[in-house]
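Box 4.2: Ligand-aware structure prediction
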Amino acid sequence: MPDLGVNIDHVATLRQARLGLVPDPVYAAYLCEKAGANSIVAHLREDRRHIQDKDILLLRQKIKTRLNLEMSIAPSIVSIACKIKPYQATLVPEHRRELTTEGGLDVAANFKKISTAIGKLEKAGILVSLFIDPDKKQIDASKKIGAGIIELHTGRYSEAKGNKEKERFFNEIKQAVNYAGGIGLSVNAGHGLDYANVRRIAGINGIRELNIGYSIICKAIYVGLFKAVEEMRRLAR
Ligand code: PXP
C-alpha cells in the first residue's frame, strides 16, 4: 500500500492569480493531513509562479507529516533548502516555459551538477529523491550517483491514448519499479495521476509513495479538499 503525498502547488497558483492571501497552501496542507495525506509536496520554482519562499518556511514549521520539497538543482534553491531543511528534497528538471515538470532528470548527462546538489542537501540532513523517467539508464545513473530514493515519472502512462499505448507505458513503469527495487533503490511515483488511472499504478508492488497534485486540487473545487484527498487515499490503497 503506497503512501500518498499531496502536492499543493495549485492552491498557491490560485492565490497568485490575485497576489492575495487566499487560498492559503498552509491551511490546505493542514486539511490534506487531516484527510490522511502522508506527506505534503510543494515545488519552489525558480520563477516563483506558485509556491513562495515564505510558504516553504511556514509549511516546514506547521505540518505534522513530512515536507517533500520539489526543486531544481539551481544553487540558489539548494541553498534555500539547506536553510529550511525539509524532510526530503525531490530534484526535478525545470524549464522556464513549461506548464509542469516535463520529463525526468537526465542524471547521466548532469552527473556532476546533480552530485554537487545531493552532497549539499545530504550534508544539511535532507533526504534526496531524484525524479526520473522509468528508464534503465536513468535508474542505473541514480544508483551510481548514490541516491537512495527515486520518483518515477508516470506522465507517459497518464497521457497515453488507447489501451495498447497505456499497456505499454504501464509495463514500462512496472519493469522500472522492479529493476530499481532489485538494485536497492526506494521507489516513489507520480505525475498526471488521477482518480481514473491511479489504481493500476498503486497496485504495482514496490512503490512506496505516490505524489499527486493537479487532479486532487481540481476535484477539490467540486467536493472540497478533505473529500478529494480522502477519496484519492482510498483509491491509492
Ligand atoms: N511528482 C513530481 C516530481 C512533480 O514534479 C509533480 C508535479 O509538480 C507531481 C509529482 C505531481 O504531478 P500532478 O500535479 O500531475 O499530480
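In the box above, the bound molecule is pyridoxine-5'-phosphate. The chain is about 50% helix and 20% strand.
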